[in-house]
Amino acid sequence: MYKYTIARQLAAKRVITNRGDELGRLTDLLINEKTGEIEKLLIEVDRTSKIVKKIQPRDKTIEVPYSAVTAVSDVFIVDERELAGPLE
pTM of the prediction? Predict the structure, then answer.
């Protein structure tokens, strides 16, 4: 029951960069089944976002490494510098 409560709290949270640019909304977490650690965020991108236009993803979703997350509160904040490598 506790897992579902956490999942509901995280569902559809906004994801922004440390510079305040909107990336999109969290749709899922990719978790390592052996360790239970979060590996990546699956984000439905906001096509009007400056950073998304710069990245030009092929799909409407992108994967962001969890190591890029710098803070979680009302939104997920990710370090923009860590986006360049995995998303190109």
Answer: 0.78
